[in-house]
Amino acid sequence: MDAEDDWESSSGEVTDTDQFNDEDFYSTSACLSKLQFRSDVSKAKWNVEMGMAEVIEKKGKMWITTGIVRNGKTFCLIEETLFLAEIGALLVMDDNDECLALKDIYKKISEERNGCSWELFEVYKHLKSLGYVVGRHGVPWSIKGVKNNSKPCSSQGTIQNNRVEGAEENGITCAVQMLSNLQVDELRLNFDVYLPNSKFRKSSPGDPAFLLCLVRGSPPAKAKSEVLERQCGGIPLKLCHVDHGRVSFFSFKRVELPILP
């Protein structure tokens, strides 16, 4: 009896941004951020070599589910940095202690040098706006979390986790290497997604609700999707696609075909 893979899908609009393609996008997003006044604004300093922002002043409860912890310090990946900056929750400073404009952070995303593309950012933003806890796959929330997790989700995660365990002595060198080695266009697991949870702990996050893989163009071949599923270690896999700001989610459903006479 044969089996086929059927597509299930759901989608949502990302209304704040469409694509990084003109100066109007810069000005519109900048104005949006300025209108969102907050009393709990945190501060971070962008480190070009690291490709991350080091948080130097934390305010608010958002840090329970945002940022990775290394050697007692909190760092924001590029997608986290831009998301917080857009909602007015984070001021990002450069090496001269001058505040980076949103257009400067948009440019960093468009360069795709830090393991994140515009499509991935739109997916991250969409899920975070819905309340999900979202982390970069293969980048542990904390070193303690790696040591407590005896069941890595994938072979890629195993290699990366082993590297990160040794980073306790060398600061965040290993985390930087992980980000620089990521190929944005590669078909791979991108995000670990957890359901909204007020008791979430970076040191013991548990298994994600599902793992997410960004797909460009046509759905992946059956062989490739099966490889991804094996890397998930039993955790549900969802695929996502972004088209002009519209984020769609897909999953494979295995069905049994009846035997014809």
From TrEMBL:
Span list, region Disordered: 1-20
Domain spans labelled tRNA-splicing endonuclease subunit Sen54 N-terminal: 34-92
One of the Pfam families matching this protein, by short name: tRNA_int_end_N2
GO CC annotation terms, alphabetical: tRNA-intron endonuclease complex
Gene Ontology BP annotations: tRNA-type intron splice site recognition and cleavage
Keyword annotations of the record: Endonuclease, Hydrolase, Nuclease, tRNA processing
Gene Ontology MF terms: endonuclease activity
Family listed: Belongs to the SEN54 family.
Name of the protein this chain belongs to: tRNA-splicing endonuclease subunit Sen54-like isoform X1
UniProt source species: Populus alba
Lineage, broadest ranks: Eukaryota, Viridiplantae, Streptophyta, Embryophyta, Tracheophyta
